[in-house]
Amino acid sequence: MVRQKKQKCSKLLLLSCLAVIGVIWYRSKKSDYSLSMAPRAALAPSNEELEQLNEYRARKERIKEVCQRHNMYRRFSSYADVFRNHNPLAQGRTGRIRLRTNHPYGISACLIHKAASNTVISFLFIIPPNRKDYYLGNNWHPLSSNTSLLQPFQNYIRGFPGYFVFMVVRHPFARLVSSYRDRVTHAGGKNDDVKTEVFYQNPNITLEALANYKWVPFDAFIKALLVADVKDSPYVEWDWKPANYVCAPCNIDYDFIGKVENISQDIIYLAQRLGLEKEMMNVTGNNPWMHRTTEGDSSTNYVKQYFAQISKSDIFALYEKYKLDFELFGYDINDLVNQS
Ligand SMILES: *[C@@H]1O[C@H](CO)[C@@H](O)[C@H](O)[C@H]1NC(C)=O
Ligand SMILES: *[C@@H]1O[C@H](CO)[C@@H](O)[C@H](O)[C@H]1NC(C)=O
Ligand SMILES: *[C@@H]1O[C@H](CO)[C@@H](O)[C@H](O)[C@H]1NC(C)=O
Ligand SMILES: *[C@@H]1O[C@H](CO)[C@@H](O)[C@H](O)[C@H]1NC(C)=O
């Protein structure tokens, strides 16, 4: 534990030494976020760093390959196209791509609920020095919709010139368990009297109840999800929508894909790549923000416990429902489900 922290500290120190170089690079390359990876530092990258870069490259390649294999790799042609195919990406009649954006810093992110979306928001609006320009009261929650933070369709057409576009993904089953735990915890067991059979009879009621922070058994939640239209049903919360539907990775060329399972490392890399390490350390040094990011690693066991209650056939059906996320983001059902 202590040793890990020490390693992390020295790594952070090293990264901060590169900050100046990074800032200079960032300022000069801001409008050229092609496939190039980290800023070219004076030092040759270590094997570990090369491995990390290969992993990031592989994440992008995988998405491209899966989208091509399913014949989904294409660009939206119009607002109507976005509305028709990816409602979550459209916002109001003005038609905006739902990427939260720190415009002056040219950073844009798609928010996947229950996939470190608060960390992503922090990275967008708290880490950069212009954080004072953004209202961080009630309005900074991912649910808020301040259209000035979105990307106009024209920017999409031109490939978001000058913007670094990223998203952070997570194992689909871990997202579901995380959402379930959140909602049930808030329910505080106050609604235990609600009859389970009612939920089973009408899956919409089950989902609506959980959405409203009422207690619902986990297996009833999963059964309700299985029959729901996860893309379009008004009873299906953002937390439960497949990430590929929310962020359209076959239609938007993301510069970077982070993973909750590796979020500490990935966020440090993001800061490095955008020349914001100093800022990040300044903010996270006296802020519990960084600690929240370790949740991913410790979640494996409790996710397994929840899924131990679910029948094999339901687990398989759920997998089928979220299969595209598994494929696109390189997750394995066996990581979080005990197969016996
Ligand atoms: C995190 O990144 C390291 C280095 O790239 C890799 O070895 C490790 O497997 C990753 N962990 C997860 C859970 O992706
Ligand atoms: C939306 O963001 C802009 C710029 O950050 C800010 O000026 C405006 O007050 C915000 N709107 C709301 C409703 O919070
Ligand atoms: C659940 O809601 C959807 C969408 O409103 C509706 O089409 C469906 O019939 C409902 N199912 C039940 C069992 O009420
Ligand atoms: C660090 O934060 C303090 C106060 O929050 C601020 O005054 C200072 O300018 C920041 N330093 C850097 C390098 O961002």
Automatic annotation (TrEMBL):
EC number: 2.8.2.-
UniProt superkingdom: Eukaryota
Pfam family, one: Sulfotransfer_2
Compartments it resides in: Golgi apparatus membrane
Keywords: Carbohydrate metabolism, Glycoprotein, Golgi apparatus, Membrane, Signal-anchor, Transferase, Transmembrane, Transmembrane helix
Ranges annotated as spanning the membrane: 12-28
Membrane topology: Single-pass type II membrane protein
Enzymatic class: transferase
Family of this protein: Belongs to the sulfotransferase 2 family.
Name listed for the protein in its UniProt record: Carbohydrate sulfotransferase
Organism the protein comes from: Limulus polyphemus
Organism classification: Eukaryota, Metazoa, Ecdysozoa, Arthropoda, Chelicerata
